[in-house]
Amino acid sequence: MALLWRCIRALLFRLDPEQAHHLSMAIFAALCALPGATPLLRRLLQVRDPRLAVNCFGLDFETPVGLAAGFDKEARWHRCLGALGFGSIEVGTVTALAQPGNPKPRLFRLAPDRALLNRFGFNNDGAAAAGRRLARRGEGYQLGVNIGRNKEVANEAANENYLAALRQVWAGADYIAVNVSSPNTPGLRGLQNAEALGELLAAVCRENRALALASGGAEKPVLVKIAPDLDDEQLDGIADLVLQHPVAGIIATNTTLGRDGLSTPASEVASLGAGGLSGGPLTARSRRVVARLYLRLQGRLPIIGVGGISNAAEAFEMMRAGASLVQVYSGFIYEGPLLPRNIARGLLQRVGDRSISVIVGEAASLYGRASLSLEEA
Ligand SMILES: Cc1cc2nc3c(=O)[nH]c(=O)nc-3n(C[C@H](O)[C@H](O)[C@H](O)COP(=O)(O)O)c2cc1C
After folding, report:
1. pTM given for the model
2. Burial profile 32-50: b = 16 or more Cβ within 10 angstroms, e = fewer
3. Do the beta carbons of residue 38 and residue 79 sit within 8 Å?
4. Which CATH class is domain 2-376?
5. Residue 324: CB within 6 Å of ligand 1?
6. Which of 329, 339, 374, when mutated, tests ligand 1's pocket best, judged by the most ligand atoms within 8 Å of its CB?
7. Is the Cβ–Cβ distance between 247 and 224 less than 8 Å?
8. What are the pLDDT digits (tens) for 56-102?
9. Which residue has its alpha carbon closest to ligand 1 atom 7?
10. Domain residue spans in the chain?
């Protein structure tokens, strides 16, 4: 299987990365549409063991390994992707109104670093369309919906724009991720400032409650997704702030603007232009952010750890740093469709006869202690 994946990857990596993404998903979706294919995939690839089960912000996750936002931006493929053994899939980022995103090319591979650089800019066909697609659910995964603001909307008017997206996807989501950390929407990261973030979270949580009351159902867990490029003071500030709102957790981290310590030649990196970097160069940085948040939150809120996870050892260490759940994106591009299964198996080996949840945060002091630059990553 590993050899087969290496051959497929060699072919895909000859294509433009965005084309490769759409081609591979079109083929995969066609395969999944064959009678009996999705249940068969699930049987072959889903690793289900009570030791991996995690209950987090009121939801049951069959495994802590999820797919990060940005892979299934328009909620088109979550049923097929779920069959690969992810315990959660976060679709989006979805914006209230459809928008084209930045001009192509806007996705690049930095193979020597097992990294990606993207400046997509929230290309998506809008929250109403995504909301309709959420209704058709697959089995075995929790479905998160990541919402962001439209490019043309100023931060001063962002709250209403987020709420417009929220209303359209709310019914189909198991949890909501409020994305204030993409580097590719000008000014978006400004919403991480205490005042702006406080107002945004208050507005989203109020609307969440109103939607729950109107539907007669329960409120959805609301999480906030943050950048890796925050200093310790800002991280502590965000941890303190989220505790003041009925927020269910923090997703850390999004892509970085840093470019230090890469193996890809600097001139090549510079020629790619602006964008957020993900994958290998983010591993240590994201882990440290998670550890720092964990130490500050003292277990009062769960953290989803994401950034540079491409194997079981990295997933395990992210959880030891303080993540209750983990997500992958770039690692999935490099390691292929068996990654969720391989990580799940590797976690089971490492955890022995314990439940995976008992390791959460056990190395937070180790990873959260020193300040770490991307160079050390
Ligand atoms: C091509 C690409 C597109 C992404 N799009 C989004 C997005 O729309 N919304 C979001 O919150 N994060 C997005 N991300 C960030 C990922 O969800 C994740 O936080 C980040 O890539 C770090 O994880 P990784 O190192 O496993 O890739 C994107 C990442 C990549 C590589």
Report:
1. 0.97
2. beeeeebeebbeebbbeee
3. yes
4. alpha beta
5. no
6. 329
7. yes
8. 999 999 999 999 999 999 999 999 999 999 999 999 999 999 999 99
9. 70
10. 2-376
